[in-house]
Each structure stands twice: as C-alpha cells, then as structure tokens.
Specification:
With 98 residues, the protein is mainly α. The chain contains two helices and two strands. The chain has helices at residues 3-36, 61-80; strands spanning 41-44, 47-50. Strands 1-2 form a two-stranded antiparallel ribbon. Strand 1 (41-44) and strand 2 form a beta hairpin. It is flat, with a radius of gyration of 23 Å. The two termini are 24 Å apart.
Length: 98
C-alpha cells in the first residue's frame, strides 16, 4: 500500500473540514443579510442565492408507537431473510487523536 495516499487523504480531510466551517459561516451571514433585507432571492454573477425553509415535524406518541412497530417488522424480515439486502463498500477514516 502507498502510505502517501493515506497522508493525502488525511490532509484533504482536514482542509475540507476547515472549508466547510468557513462555508457554514458565510451561509449564516448571507441568510441573515437577505432576511434582514426581506429578500428571498438574489441573482449575482456568482450564481443565484435563495433563502429556503424546511418544515420539521414532531409527531404524537401514537405515531412513535407505529414507527416502533415498523422498526420491529423490519427486524423480523431481516431475520427471516425476506428483506432484500444489498451491500456497498466504502472507506471509513478515523483521525488519530494526539
């Protein structure tokens, strides 16, 4: 195995984390500015920026019980072998804590 690939992967992972943090901060600033100006959409030479919203629901205890029943039904099908299974290979990276 080429250790250089592992080194490059780790370095890139750190850069991506830093960039994602910067991007999140910019996103918050842009949304605050657009919301403060009561603007939902801005078209610039860099692209179109739109403030969107997403609804989040909190369900009743009755629905939570139904979800639990579905969860148990899924486990039963997995155990019986009636549920169709597929697998995908992927890479897991864990940073060494110093």
């Amino acid at each position: 195995m080429k250790k250089e690939l592992f080194f490059q992967y780790r370095a890139l992972d750190e850069q991506l984390k830093t960039l994602e943090k910067v991007k999140d901060d910019l996103r918050s600033q842009i949304v605050a500015d657009m919301t403060g100006d009561a603007v939902e959409k801005v078209e610039t030479e860099y692209g179109i920026f739109t403030v969107a919203s997403r609804a989040v629901f909190k369900y009743t205890e009755a629905v939570k019980k139904l979800e639990e029943k579905v969860k148990l039904a899924k486990i039963k099908e997995e155990q019986k072998g009636t549920a169709e299974r597929s697998e995908t290979k992927y890479l897991v990276y864990s940073k060494i804590k110093l």
